[in-house]
């Protein structure tokens, strides 16, 4: 039925939980910044981070469509203290932030099995996720997903978020995908399913432990209430 499978990442293939409110995160990040001469106490660092993040979102003009790059926020935190860091230092700040805030990162059961089976059946696999590349690129490597896809599209790199039509158009046009032979698979109705509907693509909704309630008003081709990724194979191939 389908030749091309476009997957969402977090909540669909990957079970993740982060906590950016814990004191430990901001205490350790204040130490990290002090290594480069940008000295903050933990409370001030958290307040400045939230301030710069909020300002960047507001400046974007369309926060529901435009995706900012969080590396710019980490850069501003250095700049505020008169430090001009190299790009690799800014990226390391972002990675350290993510690592400390991360409390769970693992593949959902059968995720890798399903991807491998689809590839064995000569299907093309793509990733389309609303995420920050400075976090996600490393996590894909850690989980063994970095080489599983024929194309990886991360909103902070593209600059556009799902469900915007432009986010889907980028992956469709770049890879010359036939919409009738392409399906979107995700756990979020408001981004994955709505976005697929906007562009005229079939979709599969997966109910995971990281998901909004099922929206019966929004149509999709298949609904997997069990969260069992193996049902993708059963629904579209067998």
Radius of gyration: 19 Å
Q: How does the helix and strand content classify structurally?
A: alpha/beta
The beta-strand count equals: 8
Strand order of the largest sheet: 5-4-1-6-7-8
Task: State the gist of this model.
With 238 residues, this protein is of the alpha/beta class.
Describe this entry's structure for a reader.
The chain is α/β, with parallel strands linked by helices and 238 residues long. The protein is built from 10 helices and 8 strands. The protein has helices at residues 23-34, 42-60, 70-79, 87-101, 111-120, 133-142, 155-158, 165-174, 189-199, 230-236, and strands at 4-7, 14-18, 102-107, 124-129, 151-154, 182-186, 202-206, 222-224. The model has no long low-confidence stretch (mean pLDDT 94).
Fill in the keyword field for this structure.
10 helices, about 240 residues, alpha/beta, about 15% strand, Rossmann fold, two-stranded antiparallel sheet
Secondary structure layout plus pairing:
Layout: E1 4-7, E2 14-18, H1 23-34, H2 42-60, H3 70-79, H4 87-101, E3 102-107, H5 111-120, E4 124-129, H6 133-142, E5 151-154, H7 155-158, H8 165-174, E6 182-186, H9 189-199, E7 202-206, E8 222-224, H10 230-236
Parallel strand pairs: 1-4, 1-6, 4-5, 6-7, 7-8
Antiparallel strand pairs: 2-3
Helix pairs in contact: 1-2, 1-4, 2-3, 3-4
């Amino acid at each position: 039925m389908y030749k091309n499978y476009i997957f969402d990442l977090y909540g669909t293939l990957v079970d993740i939980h982060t906590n950016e409110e814990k004191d430990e995160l901001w205490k350790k990040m204040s130490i990290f910044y002090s290594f480069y001469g940008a000295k903050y106490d933990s409370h001030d660092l958290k307040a400045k981070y939230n301030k710069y993040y909020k300002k960047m979102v507001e400046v974007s003009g369309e926060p529901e469509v435009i995706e900012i790059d969080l590396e710019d926020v980490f850069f501003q935190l250095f700049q505020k203290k008169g430090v001009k860091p190299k790009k690799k230092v800014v990226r390391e700040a972002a990675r350290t932030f993510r690592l400390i805030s991360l409390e769970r990162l693992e593949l959902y059961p059968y995720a890798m099995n399903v991807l491998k089976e689809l590839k064995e059946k000569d299907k093309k696999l793509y990733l389309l996720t609303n995420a920050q590349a400075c976090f996600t690129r490393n996590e894909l490597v850690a989980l063994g997903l970095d080489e599983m896809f024929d194309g990886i599209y991360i909103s902070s790199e593209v600059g556009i978020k799902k469900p915007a039509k432009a986010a889907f158009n980028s992956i469709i046009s770049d890879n010359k995908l036939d919409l009738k032979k392409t399906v979107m698979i995700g756990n979020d109705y408001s981004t994955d399913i709505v976005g697929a509907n906007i562009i005229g693509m079939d979709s599969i909704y997966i109910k995971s432990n990281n998901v909004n309630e099922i929206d019966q008003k929004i149509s999709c081709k298949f609904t997997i209430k069990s969260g069992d990724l193996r049902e993708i194979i059963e629904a579209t191939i067998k």
